[in-house]
Design brief:
The chain is α/β, with parallel strands linked by helices and 145 residues long. The termini are far apart. Helix content is 28%, strand content 27%. The strands form 2 sheets. Strands 1-2-4-3-5-7 form a 6-stranded mixed beta sheet. The chain is built from 4 helices and 8 strands. The protein has one domain: 3-Layer(aba) Sandwich (Rossmann fold). Strand 3, helix 1 and strand 4 form a beta-alpha-beta unit. 37% of the residues are buried. The C terminus is likely disordered.
């Protein structure tokens, strides 16, 4: 698969790097975990293969969260509302009205992992938490060890 062109969506005062690839009938928004770089992901064979397989079945929308990859740098941690705004801005810029959402493992309270996405809206077709866990559970396990 050819590496998709990197584009930018505006969310508040931040430019969010994203790519769209594939021609499936259903849009799938991939929300990365802690670290993501939309262009370098295609240089790592395992990740490139995985993204290409997803793009065979879906119109795949991937993006770098604010402060990571090619998205604008930020100071501090974005709020839940800001992250949700970001997760709506990218699919909107990509022309997606209704997408399935998949999110990678991210330690976050209240399942920000997919709350991060437009799943909070009724516009989401489906959601998939990939390796999701609650921050509190992680801290509790660490304290008990």
């Amino acid at each position: 698969m050819e590496v998709p062109q990197t584009r930018y969506a505006r969310s508040g005062d931040v430019n969010m790097a994203y790519q769209v690839g594939g021609t499936g009938a259903c849009d799938l928004v991939w929300i990365p975990g802690f670290v993501q770089h939309v262009e370098l992901a295609w240089e790592e064979p395992y990740r490139a293969h995985w993204l290409a397989r997803l793009a065979e079945r879906f119109r795949l929308i991937v993006f770098d969260k604010r402060g990571t990859g090619l998205s604008d740098r930020i100071v501090g941690e974005p709020s839940l509302e800001t992250r949700m705004d970001d997760s709506r801005a990218v699919p909107g810029a990509a022309g997606s009205d209704r997408a399935a959402v998949a999110a990678a493992a991210t330690p976050a309270p209240g399942h920000v992992v997919c709350g991060d996405a437009s799943v909070a809206d009724e516009s989401a077709r489906a959601r998939l938490d990939v390796g999701a866990f609650e921050l509190g559970a992680r801290l509790s396990m660490g304290a008990a060890a």
